[in-house]
Every structure is written in C-alpha cells, then in structure tokens.
Amino acid sequence: MPLCAGVLILFALARPSIGRGHNRWLDWLLAACLIGAAAQLVPLPSAIRDRLSPNASAVDRALALAAAPERREATPLSLDPEATAWALALGAIYIGVFWCARAIYARGGVRTTVRMIALTGLALTTLVAVQRATSPKLLYWIWQPLSAGASPYGPFVNRNGLAGWLAMAVPLAIGYALARRASRPPAVGGVAARLAELDATQLLLGGSACLMMGGLLGSLSRGGIFGGAAGLVVFVALVQSRRTEGRAAAGAAAAVAATVAIAAMYANLGALALRMQETTELGEWGRRAIWRDTAAMIRDFPLTGVGAGAFERGMLVYQSGSRHFFFNHAHNEYLQIAAEGGLLVGIPAALAAMAAVVAIARRLRADQSAMFWIRAAAVGGIVAVAVQSLFDTGLRTPANGVLFAVITAIALHERSHDGNRRDRRAR
After folding, report:
1. Is it the case that residue 369 has pLDDT exceeding 90?
2. Cβ–Cβ under 8 Å, residues 225 and 163
3. Which residue, 218, 181, 238, 224, is CA-closest to 370?
4. 296 vs 316: CA distance, rounded Å
5. What confidence tens digit (pLDDT) does each residue in 114-149 have?
6. Minimal CA–CA distance to 250: which of 343, 181, 158, 152?
7. Residue 185 carries which DSSP code?
8. How far apart are CA 333 and CA 388, in angstroms?
9. Distances (CA, A) of 86 to 27, 35, 396
10. Is a pLDDT exceeding 80 seen at residue 356?
C-alpha cells in the first residue's frame, strides 16, 4: 500500500507523456496487458465463462468446500479474484514507475539514480552478510516469514529475490564508472596514471560492484548467477560492437573480469560448485516437475488463463506429485504468465517485449554520448533478469519489479536539451 501511494504521488509530480512519440506502441501494449488482467475480474454469466474458460468450473468444484448451486451467479474468469486484483495493482505500479522514470530521465537524473542504486547495493550486501551470520531465519532479526522453510536474505524472503536485484544492479555500477572515464580526455601514461585519475565516485562504484557481485555469488542462486553472467557478457558485447577502439572494449572486459575476480575471493566456491551440480533438479519437487504441471494448466486454460496471481490456487488442483512441498510459483516467469494470463495477457506481453527490444536498439544506435555506457549496462541488467526468469519468478518481488522498471526506463529514455545540460553537471 505505501508503494501504491508513492507511485500515485510520483505520477502526479512527473506527469509522464503516455502513448506518444517513439514509444507509443510500447505504452499502448503495456496498457493492453493491464486491461487484459482487469478483464479477468469482470463477472460473466456462467455460459460465457464456460465457453471462454471451459475448465474453470471443474477447478472451482474441486476446490469448493460446499456443494456448488446448480444456477450460479455471474463469476469472474479468475480462479482467485482477490489475488488477481493485487497482481493487477502490482503490474500497474511497475508500469507507472517505468513511465514516471522515463519522463524524469528525459530531464536528467540518470547518474544520480545509478549512484543511489550503487549505495543501496552496498548497504544491502552488508545487511545480508550480518543478518545471515546472526539471524538466518528472521527478516530484519524480528519477523518470521509465513513459509516455515523460508531462509531470508536480508529483506528478501529467499536467495533468488536477492540474486535478481543484484544481477540488475552490478552492470549499472560498472557502466557508470566506465561512463565517467569515457567522458574525460584519455590519460597520458601507463596504468599508474589511469589509476591516479580515479575519483571518489568511481571508487565507490567499483567497490559497490565488487561487493554486490560477491553477494550474488554468495547467494548460491543458480538462476541469478547465470542471469548475472549473461548480463555482463551482453554489456561487454554491446560496448565492443559500438566502441571500436580496442582500449574501450578491453577496458570494459577488464573491469568486468576484475569485479568477478575480486568478488570470488569472498564467495564460498565449494558450496557454489555443489549448487551448480544440482542444476537439473530431478525428482518430484524439481523444476521439471513444476514445469510439467504448469504446462498441464496452460493446456486447460489457453485463452484467458487462470487469472493473474491465481497460479497458487490453480496448482492446488494441478500439482500431480507429492504434497510434502507445494508449488506456489512456476519457477519460470514465461510459463507463469502463460498459465495466469493465457493469450489474453500473453499476446500483448510478448508484443510489448518485442516493441521494447526494437526501441532499446534504436536508442543505443542513436546515443553518441558517454550515456551509452549506462544504457548498455541497463540492457545488461534487463538480459540478466530475462535469463533468470527461465528458472525463477523474481520480478514478482516488488523491489525487483521496481528496479527492473527503473533500468528499463534508463535504457529507453530520450533526453531533452535541458536534460543534456543537467546530466553533464551531475557527472
């Protein structure tokens, strides 16, 4: 609720332009996603509901505690309307943050935002290290998570949420540090001369990137680590494709390699190796079993889905294995969107993703300033989440969803002339 209120205030202050300019198709497709989720809450006569979602009545009967009446009143498409309403609100928050951030960054402030993300990451990894050492079962040393088997990582209920946030933040810190270097004349001399030119902000960014990378490796989240690695590779590739000077591309690769090497000194590589050996996760509670049961749900609800946020209720029926553990998420964001939204939400979501890719590529080609480094870093963060989403549903954690909206706005924003001047002053 505080997040909802904050976004409403931000919306009133930023007054973003929606559905105009180069990003108009993306804006309308994002709005279509929200409209599709909202349509799942509209009460429909039973005949229409059964035609659109033939298996919904069977699931309702299986979950009913009492016998269902023969003549039912109008019922929404969603199997869990309350969960769908919350999911709709959360989706609106993410999209609202994206629109507001994009409008703000047109006037400047990208570098300030990245500095604050780096500082937050520095504080976050320190908090996680202390909390894991002193109170590994409680959130902020006080609250017991609702799930009895939860293992909190600072403010995150599980390792995957923390890893997703760090995988997005690490490339940003590296990209901004390199952007500051690229905006200055080349240093005369060797390595010592270049090191002497490092300022306090670059040292802060570099230290934060190393500590966050250490936190990412220490989380032992396989999806997060794979995603973080993919994001950094894409960042270096983008720099190499654009910055044809050998020193620029080599500098980006060296910065990434140094960050990983320093972070690895603080990670438990033995435990990490054991986690990586379990990647396939066979068995009745592994990801393959979850994906198999999710696929069955998708086949039964192809058009309208079970309802945004209603995966957990639907899986009460579709989980086929042992019930010692309950599958409350699909552990694959794309499968969960297909299960919850069907074609009703899935088609506009896929088209919005394609529109975003086209728009980001256009902005990268057009940017000839040092901001290119930060844009490329933001793209690396987006790729990190896209890869992690093959194994987890980390974006459903509000902290991760908001950061994803912010970095997407960084990658897509178009700066005004006033914004250019303000951004140069903020370097």
Report:
1. no
2. yes
3. 181
4. 13
5. 999 999 999 999 999 899 889 888 888 888 888 777
6. 181
7. P
8. 9
9. 21, 14, 11
10. yes
Name the amino acid, one letter, at 363.
R
Q: Residue 127, Cβ neighbours under 10 Å: how many?
A: 15
Least confident interval from 48-52, 253-257, 368-372: 253-257
Asked whether residue 423 carries a pLDDT value surpassing 70, the answer given is no
Question: Quick check: 378 pLDDT over 90?
Answer: yes
Residue 281, helix vs strand vs coil: coil
CB burial of 330-339 (b: ≥16 within 10 Å; e: otherwise) equals: bbbbbbbbbb
Identify the pLDDT of residue 91: 95
Q: How far apart are CA 16 and CA 12, in angstroms?
A: 9
| C-alpha closest to that of 252 among 190, 166, 182, 189 | 182
Task: Specify the pLDDT at position 68.
Answer: 57
The sign one gets for the Cα dihedral 193, 199, 202, 208 is: positive
CA 24 to chain centre: 22
Handedness of CA 365, 368, 370, 371 (dihedral sign): negative
Tokens of 341: 């939204």
Q: If DSSP codes are grouped into helix, strand and coil, which group holds residue 391? A: coil
Helix boundaries (H) for 145-245: 159-182, 191-196, 200-219, 222-242
For residue 149, give the DSSP letter: T
Question: Residue 250 half-sphere exposure, CB side, CA atoms within 13 Å?
Answer: 3
Render 39-107 in DSSP notation, one character per residue.
Answer: HTTS-B-HHHHHHH-TTHHHHHHHH-SSPPPSSPPPB-S-S-HHHHHHHHHHHHHHHHHHHHHHHHHTS
Could you tell me what percent of the chain has a pLDDT over 90?
A: 48
Of 174, 239, 169, 87, whose CA–CA distance to 406 is shortest?
A: 169
pLDDT at 326: 80
Across the strands, what pairs with 44?
A: 75
Angstrom distances, CA of residue 210 to CA of 104, 149, 200, 201, 250:
29, 30, 15, 14, 18
Query: What is residue 420's predicted lDDT score, i.e. its pLDDT?
Result: 52
Query: How big is the CA angle at 313 (ends 325 and 389), to the nearest 5 degrees?
Result: 70
Q: How far apart are CA 111 and CA 84, in angstroms?
A: 36
- AA letter at 290: I
Cα–chain-centroid distance for residue 225?
Answer: 14
C-alpha 373/C-alpha 368 separation (Å) is: 10
